[in-house]
Amino acid sequence: MGDTYYGRDTFNVHDQGNVTVNNGSVDVTAAVAELRALIAELGRAGAIAPDGSVADPGAVVAAVQEQPGRLRALATAVAGGAKDAVLSIVQGGVASLIVALVSRATG
Fold it and tell me: What is the top-level taxon of the source organism (predicted)?
């Protein structure tokens, strides 16, 4: 593994997909954990199909909008410029949709 430089940030990629960001304000590991937890919950609720595609876009949007405090680390990571780092770890349309919704909400 190694360091990846993106703008002012250094992304350190460690074994098992763990990433730290050296800018003092972004915790990509926490953001990824929040994103994965929400995706798992949406999967259990049937909003995500077994193949990982979005089965119920309305449920995904509602889950993000109804609990904005639940995704604080993700919102901080997106606002801090680490959106690409998060999406490089958690890939797929659902992850992209959630990150886009969080990005739009933060601004």
Answer: Bacteria
pTM strictly above 0.70: yes
Confidence of residue 1 (pLDDT cuts 50, 70, 90): very low
Give the percent of the chain with pLDDT over 70. Answer: 76
How is 40-101 classified by DSSP, letter by letter?
A: HHHHHTTSB-TTS-BS-HHHHHHHHHH-GGGGHHHHHHHHTT-HHHHHHHS-SHHHHHHHHH
Cβ pair 73, 22 in contact under 8 A: no
Containing domain of residue 92, as a range?
A: 27-106
